[in-house]
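User: Here's a chain of 293 residues. Predict its fold as tokens.
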Amino acid sequence: MSQPVIQTVDLTKSYGKFRGIEGINLSVDAGEIFGFIGPNGAGKSTTIRTLLALIRPTSGTAMIFGKDCVKEASKIAKDVAYLPSEPSYYETMKVKEFLSYAAALYGVKADKRIKELAERLNLDLFRKISDLSLGNKKKVGIVSCLLHAPKLMILDEPTAGLDPLMQQEFFDILLEENKKGATIFFSSHVLSEVQKICGRVVILKEGKVLMLQKISELRKNGYKKIRLTALGELPERSFDFPGVASLKQEGANASFMFMGDVSEILKKASSMPLADIFIEEPTLEEIFLNYYK
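Assistant: Prediction complete.
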């Protein structure tokens, strides 16, 4: 079995009495697009900064490519690209000057790659960075991440500021890089993004791992979204039984999430005069909200 690209064991970072992250255990395989999700303040950025040795853990270990993230940070860095949630660059430089400078730091010639990516992302290479919007600054970060063909991309809220068309182009680029062998660690609180491209996902809550699962299994073994309309007013507490969550019932209409054997719902529904019933897969966001409760 190949060595994980990212591995943490009981990774903990505390700030005095304040929680950062606690006991984070992760294992990200080579070639994965791995989702790391949770609301703002859950500990996503703290985990990433610890992986990148921007901050030191209070306890536990973190390794990238089998190397200790603190002791061998400089060796790890050459094969890693990092896109922070709020990128900051040399404001007085033009975009092309900055990207050429970034390429030189990695020891690569990337003029052709810079031009190609700039065209795909509709990025003006000759504007000053200080004149760019948040979305265009994010595009600069995306291009700089891809210049040296990194083995691992760590992306923290990467689509913030991008319009929907640019988001889709960005996802296309990520999938292309993944096909070439890049491992992608994708941190976000926008769950629909993770749902589009990730194979496995960790849900973080208050600095701890709440769950880790394949997205396909999360949907298959998790909640079903059910909506029904009766021909008359539904009796009170018609669907108030184990497995039901987020129940909303008013008049002839009921909607809820259900975890369990769907035949139980169908059996219950068959005893009622129904006009319609819909059973569908919930979005990852709906699943997440129910797990997070």
